[in-house]
């Protein structure tokens, strides 16, 4: 496959939570218009690293990020960068579904509203419908858009959050285990979405499912105890891992 | 080897013991609740039995007819109220005759049963008549009966006590009996208790809560409009924006300490700063309001911060994640969820402030105030009283009739508090959302 230019570059990134050293010296380039999967055992720092990319770690007082992360060549930890503007460009789906305690419609419409993406109600309706369709949840909620988003099932909530994240048309989408609460049908719908998003965006997905990583991603990074052990083409990682730890994890011996 | 089988139908020793402990614990809890309820009932019964009388008052109904010439003559006289008293006597005589009272028809003695300000209130009415057209006017007046007569009709004053009392004689009480039978003397609901200002020691029947209720309302307004915005803004800043460091820790500890400072200390502070240093007027609601604001702020800040803390962080993450600014996150998502808690805390703080007495005593709100304060905002600088201070004030007076009024004022205060607390519960229910 053709190698796209790097969208996100990280160089010597270290993350500390107080005294805990959660990410150790991670350097990797994430190409544009590609799906990159982060895999690794629980607690190895996948979520932490993902949250560095849209500076969500800023909200955690004890968290300290060092090293360089650039998006399109711009250092996102530069003092002149406004994290609010950054997060408009880098959307995120969180590990735990967190819909707002507002109506389903308002959940999706909130982002476009605050960024002024719709000039009138009709445009907003259109954006909301499109986002819900792409989030593979439109059919289930189209008749109850005014009901609270918190009243949906766990899997529906997660898809609502996906719809919410893509409604603002970010350039990069970070997805932290988006399918962990989904049934196989919804999972395959979300995977289709990811595949489609790849044409325009960079998608970074954290997953515990090897099959999913193999199905949707072109690049895979394997994390272990805070270090990035191996990063490369997904096919390579799964068929011919270079590191013993990667092989052990993929074959189910550590995790 | 013997096989041990246990049936679920028989309780083993451990389970029995555990169940017994559980039953005992429930009994303790129930006993505690019942004790609390019992004390509450005793309190309510005692306050109600002492104070309900204050809502009813004895009135003397007299039909008064005056013409222009009579009024002009009275206004020309030197001691005007004496002439008006004469008018009242004349008209009582007529009323008594109409009511069929023939024996003991002594209008002068009957007029003695009236409150001292009866003549003055008749004069007020008569003078306004002069400005209107017409020559002759009549009106049915409900004059307040004197405090002792009121006490007699309510059972507080007896023939025996009257014999020893310099302010009333047994003969007057007998006359009161006659007048009551004739329907001239009636006990009915006393709106004056809510509207009249305080009155002097020997005019207990005219004492009302008007100025105190107005003063308390002004205090609440000031506290609400100062403490709520300041408290909520401070909490939002501390909870959502301030860095967590030594300084904010220090502020946090001090706010908690402030909540525990005795209220009289705030009174001294108010006296020293607002009155002596800044030079605001004494006895004014503005000073009381400022002092109570200082007192209420910690309550509001603590409850608001607790309400903000209770909003799950994932909601903030969600909002920040779609690119909302920290302020948008707070105002669009966090604050609406924290609103019920903030409202409850505010109302509880206000209720505390409403019942607060000590600091108001220190800043002079205990003064005897006959004049109504002007409307807000100028009225904030006029002398006023407040409900709890009025209660304190009345309990200090010698006449037992004031004790009845003090209990009545307590009932009014309790009703206001109950209304506020019910509002808090109602708002809580209304705005409570699940997430
Ligand atoms: N807010 C926090 N404060 C302190 N330590 C944290 C915090 N969040 C994560 N950590 C620590 O950082 C390390 C990495 O956590 P992280 O959530 O990134 O793991 P993960 O790879 O996403 O795991 P999982 O697959 O279970 O989600 C863990 O050791 C965790 O204890
Ligand atoms: Mg994680």
From TrEMBL, chain B:
A GO cellular component entry from the record: plasma membrane
Transmembrane segments: 27-48, 217-238, 258-280, 286-308, 334-355, 406-427
Domain of life where this protein originates: Bacteria
Alphabetically ordered keywords of this record: Cell membrane, Membrane, Transmembrane, Transmembrane helix, Transport
Annotated GO biological process: phosphate ion transmembrane transport
Keyword DNA repair attached: no
Protein's name according to its UniProt entry: Phosphate transport system permease protein PstA
Claim: Transmembrane helix is one of the keywords in the record: yes
UniProt xrefs under CDD domains: TM_PBP2 (cd06261)
GO-annotated molecular function: phosphate transmembrane transporter activity
Subcellular location: Cell inner membrane; Cell membrane
Pfam families given in the database record: BPD_transp_1 (PF00528), DUF3333 (PF11812)
Domain ABC transmembrane type-1 residue range list: 213-424
Family: Belongs to the binding-protein-dependent transport system permease family. CysTW subfamily.
SUPFAM superfamilies on file: MetI-like (SSF161098)
PANTHER family: PHOSPHATE TRANSPORT SYSTEM PERMEASE PROTEIN PSTA, PHOSPHATE TRANSPORT SYSTEM PERMEASE PROTEIN PSTA-RELATED
Membrane topology: Multi-pass membrane protein
């Amino acid at each position: 496959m053709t190698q796209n230019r790097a969208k996100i570059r990280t160089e010597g990134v270290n993350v500390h939570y107080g005294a805990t050293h959660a990410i150790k010296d991670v350097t990797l380039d994430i190409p544009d218009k590609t799906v990159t999967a982060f895999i690794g055992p629980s607690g190895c720092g996948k979520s932490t690293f993902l949250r560095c990319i849209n500076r969500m770690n800023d909200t955690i007082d004890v968290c300290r990020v060092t090293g360089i992360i650039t998006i399109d060549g711009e250092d996102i930890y530069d003092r002149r960068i406004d994290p609010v503007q950054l997060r408009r460009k880098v959307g995120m789906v969180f590990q735990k579904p967190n819909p707002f305690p507002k109506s389903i419609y308002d959940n999706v419409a909130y982002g476009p509203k605050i960024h002024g993406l719709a000039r009138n109600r009709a445009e907003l309706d259109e954006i909301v419908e499109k986002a819900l369709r792409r989030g593979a949840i439109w059919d289930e909620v189209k008749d109850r858009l005014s009901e609270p988003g918190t009243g949906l099932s766990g899997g529906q909530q997660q898809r609502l959050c996906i719809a919410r994240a893509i409604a603002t048309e970010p350039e990069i989408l970070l997805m932290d285990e988006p399918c962990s609460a989904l049934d196989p049908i919804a999972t395959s719908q979300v995977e289709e979405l990811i595949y489609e998003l790849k044409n325009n965006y960079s998608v970074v997905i954290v997953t515990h499912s090897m099959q999913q990583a193999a199905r949707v991603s072109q690049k895979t990074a394997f994390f272990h105890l805070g270090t990035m052990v191996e990063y490369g083409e997904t096919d390579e990682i799964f068929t011919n891992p270079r590191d013993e730890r990667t092989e052990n994890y993929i074959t189910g011996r550590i995790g | 080897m013997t096989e041990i089988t246990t049936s679920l139908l028989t309780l083993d020793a451990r389970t029995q013991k555990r169940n017994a402990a559980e039953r005992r614990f429930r009994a303790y809890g129930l006993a505690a609740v019942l004790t609390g309820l019992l004390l509450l009932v005793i309190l309510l019964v005692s306050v109600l039995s002492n104070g309900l009388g204050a809502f009813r008052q004895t009135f003397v109904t007299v039909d008064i007819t005056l013409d222009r010439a009579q009024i002009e003559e009275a206004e020309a006289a030197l001691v005007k109220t004496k002439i008006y008293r004469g008018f009242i006597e004349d008209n009582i005589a007529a009323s008594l005759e109409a009511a069929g009272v023939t024996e003991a028809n002594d209008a002068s003695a009957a007029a003695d049963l009236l409150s001292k300000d009866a003549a003055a209130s008749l004069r007020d009415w008569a003078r306004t008549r002069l400005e209107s057209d017409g020559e002759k006017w009549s009106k049915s007046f409900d004059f307040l009966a004197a405090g002792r007569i009121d006490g007699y009709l309510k059972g507080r004053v007896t023939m025996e006590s009257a014999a020893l009392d310099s302010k009333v004689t047994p003969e007057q009480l007998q006359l009161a009996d006659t007048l009551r039978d004739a329907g001239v003397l009636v006990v009915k609901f006393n709106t004056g208790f809510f509207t009249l200002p305080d009155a002097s020691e020997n005019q207990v029947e005219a004492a009302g809560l008007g100025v105190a209720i107005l003063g308390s309302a002004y205090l609440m307004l000031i506290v609400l409009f100062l403490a709520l915005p300041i408290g909520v803004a401070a909490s939002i800043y501390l909870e959502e924006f301030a860095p967590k460091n030594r300084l904010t820790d220090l502020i946090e500890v001090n706010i908690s300490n402030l909540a525990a400072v005795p209220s009289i200390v705030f009174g001294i502070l108010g006296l020293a700063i607002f009155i002596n240093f800044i030079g605001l007027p004494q006895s004014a609601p503005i000073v009381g309001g400022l002092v109570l604001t200082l007192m209420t702020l910690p309550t509001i800040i603590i409850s608001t911060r607790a309400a903000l803390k209770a909003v799950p962080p994932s909601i903030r993450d969600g909002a920040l994640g779609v690119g909302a600014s920290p302020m948008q996150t707070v105002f669009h998502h966090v604050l609406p969820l924290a609103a019920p808690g903030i409202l409850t805390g505010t109302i509880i703080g206000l209720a505390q402030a409403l019942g607060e007495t000590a600091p108001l005593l220190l800043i002079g709100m205990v003064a005897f105030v006959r004049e109504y304060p002007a409307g807000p905002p100028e009225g904030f600088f006029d002398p006023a009283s407040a409900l709890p201070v009025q209660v304190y004030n009345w309990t200090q007076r010698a006449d037992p009739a004031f004790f009845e009024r003090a209990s009545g004022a307590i009932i009014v205060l309790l009703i206001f508090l109950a209304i506020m607390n019910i509002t808090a519960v109602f708002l809580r229910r209304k705005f409570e959302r699940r997430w």
